[in-house]
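Hey, resending since the last one bounced:
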Amino acid sequence: MATKKTIGTPVKKEMERWEIESALSTLKRADEIRKDPKMMGHVQKLAQEQIKALGGFVTSSKAPARTLAKSPVRTLKRK
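The structure tokens again:
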């Protein structure tokens, strides 16, 4: 009887490796953009346009600490 090989672990490691490489590439690109004043100016301008397009949903300063009112937890009392 033939044994069935599982592909979960190698595939998962390969996906994790790809995600790490992608993140590194993103960080390198972000560093290149920061060092290019012209490109950074374009990025900031586009970011401001998108903030305006979203209206009151997003502000350019930091987000509020808590957006929803915290409701009290209700528990059922046993009889």
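Residues 11-56 form one domain.

Sorry for the duplicate.
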